[in-house]
Specification:
about 400 residues, alpha/beta, Aminopeptidase, Alpha-Beta Plaits, eight-stranded mixed beta sheet, 9 helices, about 25% strand
Length: about 400
Amino acid sequence: MEGNECLEKGGGSEARLSEIRRRLHQCPELDFALDETSTVVEEVLTEIGIPWKRLAGTGIAAFLEGKGNGRTVLLRADMDGLPVDEENDVPWRSANPGKMHACGHDVHMACLLGAARKLSEIQGKFSGKVLFVFQPAEETSGGALPMLEEGLLDGVWPDGAFALHCDPFLPAGTVGVHSGSFRAASDMFDCVIRGRGTHGAEPHNGDDVIAIACRVISALHELVGRTVPPSDAAVLSVGSFHAGSARNILPDRASFSGILRTLDEQARVSLKARIRRTVMNIPDILGAVGEIQFTEGYPVLRNDPGMAALVMAAASEVLGAENVIPLVKPSMGVDDFAYFLQRIPGCYFMLGTGKGDGSEEAPLHSPRFFPDERCLAAGADVLVRTALSVLGGDHQK
């Protein structure tokens, strides 16, 4: 499909949404380097007649004003892809080797653009404003905070903020909604164990930093189960370990990296302190030196109970109550939409993208992730109904 094919004028039909999504799927880009992606979004917004501006490099903010003063609602879609080689053999597969929309951000953008078109068609029937946010870098360093810091909310304070995310384990035509803490906070850590290197035949002349690092990692893995109540959720993972270059040499340095995910701020602070003490104290007892550096990630994403109930009601209106699924368990995944929800009451909900026929579904971040495009109209309609529920107006009569 050529790049301009998805920009032909037409209605907000499912076919139109599919064209936009497939065009975006073909040009996945990473982090903040989203020039082609942003251009497609901007061309569709311009075609609809909604003014936009750039923030944080490739982020886009667009305002749609109703017939008069009133409330403001924020709707957000993330834009970046993943460093994944796509394995799906379809005409609209990724044209950028090593990059893929394996987390469904192409779906998110298409749904939000579909919602923008639908809301623009009834612009004279509601009061207030809709702020459409197309955000870069959700998968990496985070684009939400830079957009906020560059003035996204200057002169406006939304009454509600909403975002959807693909879920291949819910069938297309359904949504899932959770009330309260729904996505974890994340804290990355990088550790180094330093000691005396020595020949493998003379371990008594060194400190065996590999063995010490293994003891530290083993102790870290016990922290969650022994310091966090079983009713609370927390995950500590060490995913990288590097040490040595020869089989007969005990090196003077070992390093490892990991990530802590928590749903409770008190547990987050407590575990970080315990991790620090573990990394420093065990090597010290054994004659080496432990060092640790934390990199703070996204905060806990908490859905406002009232806004979660509003999304459930809105989704029930357009999809039917039987297709709205209350989600009981939170996820230990992360999303920087949390920065919006720190400032604005709102809800982050799941959009079913599965086939719903019992066949195996590829998970998010898989090179075979393949959403059922029937989800596009459902996502757009739920966003529209949710926005109107916040705004109020003649459309409800």
